[in-house]
Structures are given as C-alpha cells and as structure tokens.
Amino acid sequence: MACFERDGCLLHYEEHGQGEPLVLLHGLGSSSQDWELQVPELSRHYRVILMDIRGHGQSAKPRHGYQIKTFSEDLLALLDHLDTGPVHFVGLSMGGMVGFQFAVDHPHRLRSLCIVNSAPEVKRHNLEHWIWWAKRWSLARLLSVETVGQGLAARLFPKPEQGELRRKMAERWARNDKRAYLKSFDAIVDWGVQERIGQIQCPTLVIAADHDYTPIQQKERYVALMPHATLAVIEDSRHATPLDQPEVFNQTLLRFLAAASTSQGSLSPC
Length: 270
Fold this sequence. Notes:
Elements: E1 2-6, E2 9-16, E3 21-25, H1 39-42, E4 47-51, H2 68-82, E5 87-92, H3 94-105, E6 110-116, H4 127-142, H5 145-156, H6 163-173, H7 178-188, E7 204-209, H8 216-223, E8 229-234, H9 241-244, H10 246-262
Parallel strand pairs: 3-4, 3-5, 5-6, 6-7, 7-8
Antiparallel strand pairs: 1-2, 2-4
C-alpha cells in the first residue's frame, strides 16, 4: 500500500501506467476502488494517480480537517510528493468539487479539468434547498452506513441487470466510517467557488448524466461561465456514470484528454 503523510494524516494513493499524469478523485462515501473500470483503459495512455480523500477508503480518518479546501491541499501535497508537475484532473461528485477548488487555487498545476456530475457550489438559496438538505442531513445521522449504502445502491443502479453492481456498491458503502462520512458530508454544504470559475483557463470538460440528481440545465449555466469549457451529456446514466456507463465514459474522457494535450500550445496553463 502506497501512502504519504500530511499534517499527521496518512493518505493512501496508487499509481498505474506511464505518460502524462492523470488524477482520478472519487466522491463522498466512495474510494479510489470505484475507478476500477477506468484504470485498465486509462493507464494504457497515462500515468494514472488515485488518492483516497481523508476519511475515505484506506486513508486515515482523523477528527479534523474535513473541508473541501483541505482535501484540495491534500491533493497538492500528494502531487508535490510525487513530483508530477501539472496534471490532468478528473473528479466525480465531491471529487469534482475538490477539482474546482484546486483549479481556482492552483491553476498552474493543471493541464486540464474534467468534472463529472458535480457543481462549483452547494448553496442553500431558498426554503426548498434548506428542506432538502435538512432531510439528507437527518437521514445521514439517523440511518446506519449499511442502510444508507443499500438505499443509494438501489437508487444509482436500479436496473435488474445491475444486481451485482448494486450488491458490490452497497457492500463497499457499508465499510465507511460514519463519523468521517458525516464530517465530509458537512464539508459540502454551503461550500462554493462559483464566483471564481471564470478564471479557469485550461481545457475543461463537464460530464453530465441525463438522470443525475441535478438537471442538465444547471450544468449548462456554470459551463457558460468558464471560457474553455464544454458539456458532454451521457445518456441512460445516473450519478455514478463511470460505473454504470464505463465504456462511453472512458471514450468520452480519452477524446477530451487527447484534444487537451494537443491544445497546450494554444492555451495558457489553467
């Protein structure tokens, strides 16, 4: 197991393949294991780097340090540790939020940015937002991680032929440390950098599932704020697009990365 320490927190990471460095960062309650359908394909072309966000997977579960900005600084420390230079970055859900934070704080460290089923802010603007988050906050605390995992797996993978995927993901979710999961959940609420994403200059791809939690129109609005961003919609997919549509996701990402690599001479670093 590869790991490094930042401010007393032991963080797990993996490397696969060779080439330009490509970071894959998972979402809330997940781990680097959930990129299993991407690593074999992507590592044929890139130096793939996976990190378990603090509180997740095989990384430590400290009592403090659960903020999106801290997760971003953990990633920066890993890239310094590995001496990668600028990287391509792909982030799913909460991992995408970390990517937005990283992009506005450390623009020179990115070759490209890919955001998957995520957003540059999670703000409670009205009563409906407050009620929705209050329900999620309450359920996260009242229910066991096993029960939450079973519910999420059923929602994300509802098709009869996805039974094995449902079982596997519910089993993985049940391994979460509840205290770390709740602290990470709280880190998302009221976080945001949307007012700064117009500064992002590197090639950017936003991937949206057609059945994601949030509508495609929301992604269209924030994509329009970034000067070099495009939107790709993947059909018949829900929030965990890399798992439910791996072939389409991999090919969409590879096309973007190839174009981003050839455009480095015409665009400034991020």
